[in-house]
Write a structure and sequence with these properties.
Layout (H helix, E strand, L loop, with lengths): L5 H7 L13 H19 L7 H22 L16 H7 L6 H31 L5 H15 L1 H7 L5 H6 L7 H29 L8 H13 L5 H26 L5 H11 L2 E3 L1 H19 L13 E5 L9 E3 L9 E5 L6 E3 L3 H8 L4 H10 L6 H4 L5 H17 L6 H26 L17 H11 L4 H13 L6 H20 L5 H8 L7 H9 L2
Parallel strand pairs: 2-4
Antiparallel strand pairs: 1-5, 3-4
Helix pairs in contact: 2-3, 3-10, 5-9, 6-9, 11-12, 11-18, 13-14, 14-17, 14-18, 17-21, 18-19, 18-21, 19-20, 21-23
């Protein structure tokens, strides 16, 4: 895969000096699928191993590649435009994985910038083929991507406050003087290509996509959910279970809201925290504050609940570039840890940051959440396989662990402050709402009679937005972005709560099995050293540890 795909190579920290861009053309996606088919054929011809680690890797490999090919066979790559996790993001994200310490590194950056227009031409060909096949993205996804691309070029900022030269120009501004003319010219070329692609989306693709519905229906949803969770889900059971979680979490939130502001409603307490709670002013100040939060968590947890040593202890807090997703995110380390794990905060034009929600979010993105799991995978890669700790990752596993990590910090008393605990519960509620509205919108399900919210009506994006505004403290821009995300990436957002459920079920079963001999720290480290598993296997595997 690394030989075929420079994004994979850059993510893993391989092939320093590679200046290729991902091949997003129809031929590029076909080549990707052919690698999967050849690998499955080789796996079929390989005798079964007695080694449990080998068997686990074989099962993961078969499940992942089968799910991937099901998406490819259905033509999903021909209509994949969305505001989070889009193919188009790769042409920019790949630069964040590149080393930039030597002149040779910067020369590779310049080459990759020059190759960006060709990558966009390839993806234009893919989307054009999708139009001819009747496979198109919904208009709200296209519009969202158009806005993000304007952020990349700096034109969105120009409309707001004088503008700038765009993301690529800013990225090369730290390059060596000797290469600056080449870097600046390459950045201008890349920026112009992004603007041209954006205009094509607006003027040609968007009119063609005008009648494409937001909802994908049960068949497409099940296929996408399998790809994101590694499980054959009972969607009706998951929908009903999420409603029970909704009512349980809402009751807890009301208790904490009354502690924050006695006699207030839930939304009044949240608004009070936004206006009068603890805040940090300035991008650099919030970056430093989040870094300190993660450093303190490492110190508090090491030795007592986890074994944190060596490069696992290194994690960087960063501000996300303009045109990123609206929610915080994490990028894992390279295989040799030369690039550390990094958390990113999108500022969305803010300069003052209330912290009541951020504490729990950073336990999710950093430590003991994504960073602890994914850095530990890299640390044990020699005991597993490169595939199990990188390409084979299952979204619901890693998001489920990160949500489990938030809950574990609550169990340890890290949210004793009512504001921070309301932030934790608000995050839990957001992930519960995701299950309800993600399944509900795409399957156009009825809202239960005992829900307390538009009983009996069928879900629409407008109702989902109202539901989130009523029961979650996210600002309006984040809420709208969330709804766009669910509609554009069906079956991904449900993995947080369903994954957390699998982690909690696995731990409970392991406790019952071991009784008084159960050691939480030992169980955590074994669980974090398994590598990737889909939800069909996760709880059972955790129970055996």
């Amino acid at each position: 895969m690394a030989a075929h795909d420079p994004m994979t190579s850059a993510w893993l920290g391989l092939s320093r000096g590679d200046d290729r861009q991902p091949d997003l053309s129809p031929d590029g996606f076909a080549a990707h699928a052919e690698i999967a088919r050849r690998t499955l054929a080789a796996l079929d011809a390989t005798p079964a191993s007695e080694d449990p680690a080998e068997r686990a890797c074989a099962r993961l490999l078969r499940e992942r590649l089968t799910a991937e090919l099901a998406m490819d066979d259905a033509g999903e790559n021909f209509r994949q435009l969305r505001t989070v996790g889009a193919h188009i993001d790769q042409v920019r994200t790949i630069f964040s994985f590149m080393p930039t310490t030597t002149d040779e590194d910067w020369a590779a950056v310049a080459g990759r910038l020059r190759n960006l227009p060709g990558a966009l031409d390839g993806y234009r060909a893919t989307l054009t083929e999708g139009v001819s096949r009747g496979l198109l993205a919904a208009p709200r996804q296209v519009t969202g991507v158009i806005g993000q691309l304007s952020d990349w070029t700096g034109e969105a900022a120009g409309r707001r406050a004088g503008g700038d030269a765009g993301w690529f120009a800013a990225f090369v501004s730290d390059g060596p003087d000797r290469l600056r003319p080449d870097l600046d010219a390459a950045a201008r070329k890349a920026t112009a290509a992004v603007a041209e692609f954006r205009d094509w989306l607006r003027d040609t693709y968007l009119p063609a996509a005008a009648d494409t519905p937001d909802a994908v229906g049960r068949e497409r949803y099940l296929r996408a959910a399998r790809h994101n969770t590694g499980a054959e889900l009972d969607l009706d059971e998951a929908y009903a279970w999420a409603w029970s979680e909704f009512h349980r979490t809402l009751a807890e939130m009301r208790v904490e809201a009354d502690r924050v502001l006695p006699g207030s409603t839930l939304l009044e307490a949240m608004h009070h925290l936004d206006e009068h709670g603890h805040t940090v002013k300035g991008e650099e100040a919030i970056r430093d504050w989040l870094q300190q939060l993660m450093d303190e968590a490492i110190t508090a947890l090491d030795g007592s609940h986890f074994d944190l040593s060596g490069p696992i202890r290194e994690i960087e807090s960063r501000i996300a570039p303009a045109g990123s997703a609206s929610g915080p995110y994490y990028q894992g380390p390279s295989l040799d840890f030369s690039r550390p794990g990094r958390t990113y905060l999108p500022t969305l034009g803010q300069d003052t940051f209330p912290t009541w929600q951020l504490v729990s979010i950073w336990y999710h993105e950093g430590v003991p959440g994504h960073h602890l799991q994914l850095a530990q995978w890299v640390a044990v890669a020699d005991r597993l396989s490169r595939y199990q700790v990188t390409e084979g990752m299952v979204s619901a596993n890693i998001e489920g662990w990160a949500l489990y990590a938030e809950r574990f910090m609550d169990d340890l008393g890290f949210f004793s402050d009512p504001a921070r605990r309301l932030g934790f519960l608000d995050g839990q509620m957001l992930r519960t709402i995701r299950v309800i509205v993600d399944i509900g919108m795409h399957l156009e399900l009825a809202i239960p009679a005992d829900s307390g919210f538009h009983p009996g009506e069928r879900w629409t994006p407008a109702l989902a937005t109202e539901f989130m505004a009523t029961y979650n403290g996210s600002p309006a821009a984040r809420r709208n972005s969330e709804i766009d995300r669910y509609l554009g990436w069906p079956g991904q957002a449900i993995g947080y709560k369903l994954g957390e459920r699998a982690w909690l079920q696995g731990r409970a079963a392991a406790k019952r099995r071991r009784g008084g001999a159960f050691d939480m720290k030992a169980w955590h480290m074994k669980a974090l050293s398994q590598g990737s598993l889909g939800l069909d296997d996760l709880a059972d595997s955790l129970a055996e540890l």
